[in-house]
Amino acid sequence: MARDHAPHNARNDSGDDSGDDSGNDSGRDAVHDTVTRLLVAQSQRLTPTRRHIVDILAAASGPLTMPEILAAQRGLAQSSVYRNLIVLEEAGAVHRMLTRDGLARYELAEDITEHHHHLVCSTCGRVEDLPATPALERSVANAIEEAARRAGFRTQHHRLDLVGVCSRCAT
Ligand SMILES: [Zn+2]
Ligand SMILES: [Zn+2]
Predict the structure, then answer these.
(1) Which ligand is nearest to the CA of 165?
(2) Which of 40, 58, 121, 129 is the most exposed place for a label (fewest CB within 10 A)?
C-alpha cells in the first residue's frame, strides 16, 4: 500500500495562529494541534480514540507494537486502533516501521516529535529511541553527505537504526 508523501510544510512555526500556549500541558496541546492540522488536511479530525493513540505514542520511549498500544489503554478495540493508525499514518502524523520480527511498530512522525534514531534489539525485539545529539548529527551528516554526493543523491533526511543486543538481554 503506497503511502502519499507527508506534507512538507506541515509545521508552521510562525506562531500567528497558535500564539504562545503557556498552559501546563502545552507540550501535549502542541502535539494535539499539529495532529489536528494534519488530519484536517485529510478531511479527518482528532477523535477521542485518535487522541488516545497519539497520547500513548507521545508518552512511549520508543515505537510501539499494536499489543503494546492496546496494553497502554484499557478499552481500546484492536480493530479500531488499527483503523485509526492507518488514518493517522496517511495524514503523516504517525510513522510505521517494520522490524525484523515482522512486527509493525508505530511512533509519532518526527515532524511532530523530533529527530532521533532507534536502538533495535535483535534478541527481544524491543525498540528504544536514541536521541540525536548535535555532535552525532554532525558526524552522521558528514559521512552521509560524502557518500550520497558521490552517488549523485541529495539527502533530505536520514533514518538510523542501530541493531544489536539491549542492556536487558545482555545480562
Ligand atoms: Zn533485548
Ligand atoms: Zn540523525
Answers:
(1) 1
(2) 40
